[in-house]
Each structure stands twice: as C-alpha cells, then as structure tokens.
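Question thread 4412

I'm putting together a teaching handout and wanted feedback from people who do this every day. The idea is simple: show students a protein as raw sequence, then show them the structure tokens that encode its fold, then repeat with a second protein so they can compare. Below is the first pair exactly as I plan to print it.
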Amino acid sequence: MSREIGKVLGTADAQPLDFWVAVPADEVVQLDDVVLVRRELKNGVTVTLYGMVDMLVARHEGARLESDVFLASDGVLPLTHAVKAHVTVTRVEPEVFVPPLPGQPVLLAQGEDRSKALFFDAMTRKFPLGLSRDGEPVYGNFEFLDGSRGAHVNISGISGVATKTTYATFLLYGIFHGGLLGAEAGNTHALIFNVKGEDLLFLDKTNTSMPEAEREKYAKLGLTPGAFEDVAIYAPVRAGQIEMIPDTGTRQQGVDAFCWTVSQFCKERLLRFLFTEADDEQSQIGSLVERIEARLANEDVRGIDNFETLADMICDRLQEWAGNFTSGTQAAFERRLRTAVSRVGHLIQGRVEDESRHTINWRRGQVTVIDIHNLNDRAKRFVIGVVLKRMFEDKEKAGTRHPLAFVVLDELNKYAPREGRSPIKDVILDMAERGRSLGVILIGAEQTASQIERRVVANSSFRVVGRLDLAEAQAHEYAFLPAPSRARAGILKPGSVIVSQPEIPVPVLVQFPFPSWATRPGEAPPLVAKAGKPVFPKF
C-alpha cells in the first residue's frame, strides 16, 4: 500500500510536467524518491502522474530577515519549518497532460506503481543497471543497447574514483549472466581492452573478498554472484625473448602472448596504425602511408624476419615508392617509422611457429581480455586500432546484427579526441555511427566527455556519470543532467553512478554491487591439486 508523503503545494505553480510537494514535519522525503499523484477529471477519467524527487528545499516559514533564525531558536519568534520537494514527471497515464491540483495527496510509488513510473513494465527485455538509493532494482531497456532502437554506453568520471571500468564489467556481467540473451548467449562476445593496471586480468576468478552482504544485492538484481564463465586473456609478447612469453605482471597462467607477423602486417595494411598522431588534415603523411601500404600488400616479405628489417627495406625504397611527395613529407614519415621500430617492433615478428595461437581471436571466449597496460601509448593505439578494425570487418562480412559483440574501451579521450584525425579515431567513429546496424556495441569510458569526439558521445543511448570534477560537470556534454544532479556528481562515492537512458526523462542514481570476480591476485581462490591440497596459483 503506497503511503502519502505530502500534498501538492498551493503556493507554487503546478504544471503537467513538474510540480512541488509540501512535506509534513513528520515525513522524510529524499532525492530520488519515486512518487505519484492522481487527478480525477469530470469525464470520469483518472489521470496518474508519476515522477521523481529531484530537489528539496527547507526554510523557516514566516521569517523575513536572515537573523530571524536566531530569534526562532531562542523561542522569541514562533517560526515553523517548511519542507518542499520538487518533482519532475516521468510518465502520465493515460496521456492526458493536465497539472495536479493543489492539496491533492502525493503518494510514494512502490511495487507496480514504481515499475510504471520508471517504465520497467514496458521493457520487454531489460538488464540490470544497479540498485536505487532505497535498494530497489533499476533496469535499462535492452532495445536501446542491442541496436533495435539505439546502442552504446558512454561512462564519464574522475580516474580512480568513478570506477568506470568496474561499472562497465558489471553491465556485461548482468547481460551475460542474467538470462537475457537466451539461446544467443553462447555466440555473444565481449572484447575488453585492459589499458591500465591488472584489474581486468582476473575476470575468470571468483572474488573471495566479496562481503557476504553484497550477495543480497546480486539476488535483488536476479543475478548469482561469481566469476565470468568463459574468458580468454591475451597479453603482448615480451620484448627481447626468444620464446613467446606474455608480458604480464602477476598473472602468467592462462594468458596467451599475441603478436603479428610481418606478412600479416603487410597484407592487412596495418602500417597506418603506427601513424595515429600524424594523419591530420594538414599532413600529407596519411596519403603517403596509404601508398606505402599498397606497395607492401603486393611485396614478397617471406625473407624478412623482424620489423626493423622491414622498416629498413621501406626506407631504402621510400624515394621510389613515394613518387611526387616532397622530401619533407618523406623525412617526416621515416622519422616516425624509425620511432615505431623501438616502441612497437616486438609486436611484429618475422616467423611464428604457432601463428593461430598468437593471433588475437576475439571470438575465442565469451569475454576476451586484451592486456596492453604495459605498452607505451603508440603501441596501445596500434593494438586497439588493428583489433577493432579486424572485428568490424568480421561483423561486416557476417552481414547480420546478431549475435552481438561488445567492446569495452577506457581512456576514449586518447583514441577518439575531439580535435584532429587518425585511423584509430576513424574506426571508433565508424563503430559509434554504424556499429548499431552491425551489432557492435561500444561501452566507452573517459575522464572528461568534453574532450571526446562529439559524435561518439551523441550516438550513445546510455549516458553514465560517476564522480566528476565540478568544472567539468558544467560542460555542455552534461546538459542532460539537471543542475542538482550536476552538483551531486561532484560528491558521488565509488560504487554510485548517475544513469540517463532514453525512456526515462530523469537521470537515475544507481549503486552497483561489489565485484563478484577477482580484481587482484589476493582476491582469487587458490587452485586445488589432484590430491586435494590447495596450491596457490603463480600469477
């Protein structure tokens, strides 16, 4: 039974899309409370206005001067407290847009009423976004994520505080383990780039440090806590080693070293991804790179055993291949190519015994993690650009949107900045604009959305904000947040985010549970030997 929490205020205008509520002294109303008010029309129709509290104001009623507060405290002035709550309407049923009348009771929406207020009842396919402040589930409409009516998620927030990648992996966990995908679950894939730290290298391990109370949160969301079930992990081959050893820190077991052969580099025209910082509108290097790629695609490179030798060959023939490009452009190209040898060269090998094992296969596991956190920025851009290019080409060849492929990429401001052009930015833009039709869903994250290419953010159906710098929160990219929500974003704690989705006109604060998968070696359980004795893994 919904309880009354106040009455429609009579001293402020009540409108069809927002109104104020007078809150009695014995009632506590908080931000994010979901409420409803019913108005009966003369024709017998009952209109229900659902909404959410997004602002609260308390004041002394009858006070005229700021100093009156002291007189009231001393009992000299008989002032009373007045609390009012502002409600933004989220839904009107039926759609007869009339204002509520002053004095009408405002009820706290619970159960079915709450589901109607937040459109959960209209979501034929929904996935968990987290829990509301009062511990109730909050869902997202999967039709706005799978490409049916929209796609993509963008997450913004301060590094280390907003827990952006943790929330991104939580979303994936809910999608993969919530029964939403049905028969398509086995063929749906996620590709995660681990760009910093080692937090994402233990997704396949259960978190033994998860507090018991967190299990109840998973249960409320219809999830069973645990690890991701089918995970493949790749790390770059370690430089200076004869054997193909993955360049990871604490984890070695279950990780495959990846690289490309010289032949793959040439045939697949990957040279452009070494020049991501140079290919802008004023530079001719991009055009020269395309010409060199065309030459290399038809070149016999079977005798070249490393990338440095390939670079030497390119530089020796550069004047012949460059044609009418100026000597300045050729010199700039050669400088950047020589720099790439020292930073990316170990990722391009001459001969690889088991080529398939060391080639990244994004379909190998349901979730594929590519660890690049030990690479320098140029090498990171190369790996991300090449892998996303291959994935996008594979999806284009398939010609169908299903099964879906999710891509989780942090630090978008580096790879799709607002200014300039680059091959990797072109791939990400293509994914943001055409990925919906191909079933490629981008879950991108960055510290500042104001520094991201506008089209990447604009094509994201779900906008998520964690803890924000207050100056950043005033940028135009956060105009979807009401003023109170912008201020609130400056004090959000880890584990809390504000989510905006198309069907709900008000951004909703959600809290997501502690990860049920390990995020560091100490959280992973020990392996069990055949004799039954625990053996602690050598990560």
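The second pair follows. I'd like the answer to focus on this one:
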Amino acid sequence: MKVFRYDEVPVVETTSGKLKGYFYDGTYIYKGVPYAYADRFQMPVPSHWEGVKEATSYGFVCPLMSQDTPTAELMVPHRYWPMDEHCQNLNIWTKELNPDAGKPVVVWLHGGGYSAGSSIEQTAYDGHAMCMEGDVVVVTINHRLNILGYLDLSPFGEKYANSGNAGHADMVAALQWIHDNIAQFGGNPDNVTIFGQSGGGMKVADLMQIPAADELFHRGLIMSGVADEMLMPSCVGTGEQIVKAMLAELGVAETEVEKLETLPYPELVQLYTKVMPAVAMAGGYVGNGPQVNDWFKGNPLQFGMREHARKIPLMIGSVYGEFAFAPSSFDKTALTDQERMEIVRQIYGEHTEEIAPVFLETYPGKDLTDLLNIDRVMRAPSKKLAALHARGENGGTYLYEFTLEFPMNHKIAWHCSDIPFFFHNTDKVEVCAIPGVTEKLEAQIFGAFMEFVRTGVPAEKTLPEWPEVTDEQEPTMIFDRECEVRFNFDDKLFEKINSILPSFNLMEMLASQDVQH
C-alpha cells in the first residue's frame, strides 16, 4: 500500500514565505510554488506571502494564443490546465527535507517553442519517478510565453526594459529562487542541471547565453531543441514598429501605451495577430521569442557561444524521425525491396538509386522507406552546436540520437518520444510498452542521464563507453534496442540528402501534415 501523509509533513521556510506540501509514495511534493510575480510586460520581482502557503495544487499555466486541440494523444499524451498570465510558479519532488542532504537538482524547462506548453503539459513530465529512481530533487517551471513573455515595449518606457525577454527573465528568477531555497528541500544549489526538450531545449541553450544565469546552473541537456535560422529566426531589433501598429489599430495615442497592460488577453492576442503579418513581411521585429540584446547574447549558432557556456558540461540529442507525426499510408514490413524503392522514388526521383545505399550504410537494419521521414530539423544543427561547444577548454560535450521504432504502424521515433525514457516515465505513455525492450532502454537512458547529473559524464553499466565530442571526432550514442556509439556516421547521408532535396521548411511540413506542436 502506498503511503500518503499530510498532517505530519513539516512546514518549510523559504525566502518567500512558509510552504506546506505533502508526502506520497516516498516523495515530498510541492505544487504551484510562486517563485516571482510580475505585472504584464515587466520584469519579475521575488515572490512573498504571509502565513503558510498550501502547495498541493499545480499553479496556473501561461495562456496560449490559440485553443489547444487534443491530437496524437497516443504518441504524446497531454494534460490541460487553467491558464492565467500570473503563472510564475514551480513544482518540486524530493525524498527528504534535510538541508544537509545535498542531492543533485534537476530543473525541467518545458517544450512548445516560446509560445505554448507548460510544466505539466505532458503526462511524462511528472517528477516522482525521476526523484525516486535517481535520488535527485526534481523541479519543473512555468513562465510567461508568447507575447506575454516576448514582446518588446522598451522604446515606450523604462518600466518595460527587457520586456522582450520577460519569459527568460522568469526562468532566471526561478533559478535564483531554486539557488536560494533548494537546500531546504534536500538539494545542492551548487549542482543544478537544467534540461528541456524542443522549445525547452532552446531555453537551455539560451540560458547559457545569459550572464544573469551564470552560476545558477552547472550542467545542461538539450533534447531535440537546437534551433538554427531556418527553424527559429532570432528576434533582433526593437518592438517600436509592432507596438505602434497595435496602438494604431486600437485607436489610441502612443502616450497611452499602458492600455496594452490592461487589455483582456484574448483582445491583446487578436490585436497582435491582426497587425503582425504586415510588420513581419516588412522584415520588422515581431517578438514571440527572446530578444537579442545586452542581457541575452543570442542563439550561439548565429551569434557565437560565450566562453562561460563552453565550461558547462552539455548533452545534446535528437530523435530519428522528429516531426514524423503523420500516419503512414503503407505497412513497410509487408513491402518488397522493389516496392520500397518505388515509394522512395516518389520523393527522390532519379536520385533514388544513389541515395538508397548511403541510407542503408548509415542506418543498417532500418527500413529504406524511413528516408521519407528521417529528421532534417534537429540532427544537423545539434552536430553544429556540439562542435561549437567542444572547442577550447570545455566541460564535456556528448551527443546522442534516439532511433527506437514503436509498435504503432511501425512508427519511427518522433518529436517528444524520448521524454518518457529520460524521466523514467515510460509506464505513463502507453505506446512505450514494448516487452523486452522498454525496461532495458529506459534503464540505460535514465541511468546515463543521472550519472551526467551527478558527475558531468553520462555513463551506465550496460552502455558502451560514451566519448566526448572533440575537434577530431563526433561520437554519437545511438539509443535503440541495442545501443552503440558511432563516429561521424551520418555526414555523408546528410550531404547527399541536401544535394537532392530543397532546403527543409518546418512550417510547410507541419501545414502539409496538419499537425500542431
């Protein structure tokens, strides 16, 4: 019988006030802890409350600009939650409330680009199993998103300074709160690992480029989250043009910019959405992502990597199929070799005979028709970022690729499919239930990640040795039914694909699949 306790759980004193959580199945749990407060378009300030705050319910998540539509729930099961722009809260799982315990701290930054998602959006984000199995303190964070977190109003008043990075400032405020308080929850503030997937992975790289976050975290894991200019153009310039357009549409003078602070959120979104396309078409700043300035040094692939960032041990990975969400129109296991060639020919045409052997050499044992859905989004920029991070005196750079095939139309690994393995939550995602495979692979991935959290070097007793990326070599740990390390194994394949197909456009692909993420 699992044990629940509430009455006996002691109150925890934090820099913000007193907290009352609960105990369940070996873990103390605190939900919806306010780490900061902020008025719209303004910087966060430390939270404070009187009396004892009950931390037994998840806090509000940031409002979205469009209605979520449940889809592909078998592949990525979700949870939906009440929304409010005062969403600066976090959740904690810990095994003991001992200030001397000094356990590693693991902080999750959710996906959804810079516009959507939440700390509890996916069922796989739950921190209980990671806390129990890894003996770590787990924290997940909510912060401002979209135009609430990333719209620059700084030209219109000092109080809006750095509003183009408000969402990232929230994350820095959360990391500061963790640094100041996590010892009370058994954590070591000098051993904090941040990790995130998709937009969360981008946030990991971004935080490495923010001097204000220095010393607040010590290791990083980027999962399917390395963005280049083709995927996520950087926000440069100021918000003068977009905000003036919004005010003009609203019919108010620039001196009345404060009206944007109190406009109901749905009306603010409608206003922004109406004027944004024209500003974007003219090449102007439109926000919805972190603003490059003195506070945020910009995407390292475009603006260069800070020396401090290179000293942070870093794991970087992607999955074999990434945005291959669309259902297949054929059963690839029932095809003849000739039928496979004909299917590939629909995309590669006269180049099919030259691309096929390169693919089969790169991915022995995989089906040739996977060429239709192989990742062209994350793997190449992930390799670039790893090479950049590995230069000079670095803290260690480790690459992985998750290439598992799932028992659902023989679907190759998709965006988010590795998350349950890193969280030790495959039992919460039904499609992960592969007898004789999942339990072993989960132990290997989770074990390597927990060793990285503890030491900065990923390792697990049943995995082969995982070398660092260097100027001379690019080792990649392949996570699959049988794990192996391969060196510079897909350079030739990407070179061949890119010589045949036009440049990849994620927005066009998602539109063609009618998939939202």
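Top answer:
Good format. For the second protein you could add a caption like this: The chain has three domains: 4-63+76-232+294-312, 240-281, 316-441+452-513. The longest helix spans residues 438-455.
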